[in-house]
Amino acid sequence: MASIHAYIDIPPHTAEAEVQDSEPAVALVLSQFSRNVLVTRRHPPILASPPMNTFFDILAWLPYGIVHFGAPAVCSIIIFVFAAPGSLPVFARSFGYMNLVGVTIQLCFPCSPPWYENKYGLAEANYSIKGSPAGLARIDELFGFAMYTPGFTGSPMVFGAFPSLHAGSAVTEALFMSHIFPRLRPVFFVYILWLWWATMYLSHHYAVDLVGGSLLAAVVFYVARAKFLPRQQPDKMFRWDYDYLEIGDGPTEQGYALANLGDDTHADTDEWTVGSSSSVSSGSMSPVDESSSIWEGETLASPSDSESKR
Known about the structure:
There is one protein chain. This protein is mainly alpha-helical. The protein has helices at residues 2-8, 16-22, 25-36, 45-48, 54-82, 87-108, 114-120, 136-143, 149-153, 165-180, 185-201, 207-227, 277-281, 303-309, and strands at residues 244-246, 253-255, 274-275. Strands 1-2-3 form a 3-stranded antiparallel β-sheet.
């Protein structure tokens, strides 16, 4: 990434003619392509151009400038408590890979945000231009101190509008929350729409940027769910209620013990056996050497054990 950034970076004092001569060809090609083909980079007026007043400014600021930064931590806590054990590392890796791929695309294919067109029209972009807080400048003015202006004007990622990582983060969080709480899926998707609107209202993203970020997040999530994410069991509320795991979309299930809450499950070792649903019901997923096990065979109950406890 550093080498790519060094390739496209141009010192601020460079003359405009030199800047235009030195621009990467990819930026020029993408600029022409976005003007001639990506007509969806124009804001839908009904979504992005309500009257600009304090009420709408705050309504847009909350998801874009506040919730966006705290949501990953809140979701991590919820996932740790209510999701099947092993879900939190999958969420963290999915979130990280989504952002890594998104930033790589932004570096390789720089694209201007709406505030650039609002400020400079369709003039060719150059890399001496500083970033802008756009609509968030009104929030700084409203509260009387600079929360966002210094960060956005000093950002090295001025032309990183596509894909929108705000949208990607919101979709990632909503999909994982929907995986845990399927009945609340409409609430989580209302949050996505709220953030989509906020990014356009504040002139930070076009609609196509939001679609791109959301699709990226969806691809990462569904790959993770199919291969790595433990399945939720309807009769379990907390992580501590699980006595075995079902990984991904396949039939494989994995033994699990309360003593292993903070560790990875040992599917690739000989401490636990892995099998299908029939192996769980037969009790074959208990520790292999039951005579030497500190759980004495009680970690995973067989049907007869369960009946006796009732």
